[in-house]
Amino acid sequence: MDRCPLCQSHLTLCHYRSGVKTIQSLSGVSQMSYWPKHCENPNCPNHSVGLKSAEWLQAAPMHSTFGYDIIATIGWKRQVGHQIYDDIHESLLPKVQISASQVRHLYTERYLPLLACNERTLFGQLKQASEKSGLIYTLDGLAPEGGEPQLWVVRELHTNLTIRS
Fold first, then answer.
1. Residue range 63-96, pLDDT digits in tens
2. What pLDDT does residue 147 have?
3. Which residues, at least 6 apart from 104, have a Cβ–Cβ distance to it below 8 Å?
4. Partners of 155 in the beta sheet?
5. What SS3 state is found at 99?
6. Residue 64 to residues 27, 57, 131, 165: CA-CA distances in angstroms?
7. Is 67 within 8 Å of 59 (Cβ atoms)?
8. For residue 17, how many other CB atoms are within 10 A of its CB?
9. Cα-based angle 77, 148, 88 (whole degrees, multiple of 5)
10. Which residues contact 159 (CB under 8 A, 6 or more apart)?
């Protein structure tokens, strides 16, 4: 973004880098960070807010080193392929450093909430964010290999809440 979503003033880069994280995906390991931006207008509520990078937020869930492609693969193999966790773990080992307990955790704590979109219950938080700084939606899609169904995730950028998947 080049313009503030609230006042349309120019956005400038902050003087610090943020969000350094290592991300494992099916295609390899990478490290990401971003330069937040803030509004130049001192009267705007976004003047003191460091706006996060949408690309950074779409690489992996907050506080997770595993990318959405791994989470989607685990969910697909578990729900559609009816595989047990140990078999899913074995199939991921050639590409990803992951334990069997992490496979279970990613399925129950990351995949199922994406599937159920349980963040929709946090409507009050979204309303508050919309009144304070406006809502910015991001859309990210994942096209898995072998003709499997695509995964689409719609998130709100300020709160990082998943709206729909």
1. 889 998 999 999 989 988 999 999 999 999 999 9
2. 62
3. 85
4. 138, 162
5. coil
6. 17, 11, 29, 18
7. yes
8. 11
9. 15
10. 122, 125, 126, 129
